[in-house]
Design brief:
mainly alpha, 2 helices
């Protein structure tokens, strides 16, 4: 019986495609100062509102000044999620 021919494999190797590079923001030194600043601004806003009997910081807002103060505090908590 005759031997079968051995087939040569073609050199069709293609390397796998490179994965897209992701940009990592490893420098998070801005998070702590911004977070603390937001907390302190919110706290100061509320304290000033109560100490001045509602005349400051913005008189036309009335009791909504409390919401603005808590908004700054909430923004501080939002920034804190970026802290590693």
């Amino acid at each position: 019986m005759p031997k079968s021919r051995i087939r040569k494999k073609a050199d069709d190797y293609t390397p796998p495609a490179k994965k897209a590079t992701t940009i990592k923001l490893t420098n998070r030194s801005w998070v702590a100062p911004v977070m603390l600043a937001m907390f302190l601004i919110g706290l100061a806003w509320i304290v000033v509102f109560y100490v001045t009997d509602g005349k400051l910081p913005i008189d036309p807002l009335g009791n909504w000044n409390i919401v603005v103060g808590f908004g700054f505090i909430a923004a501080g908590f939002g920034v804190s999620t970026q802290w590693k």
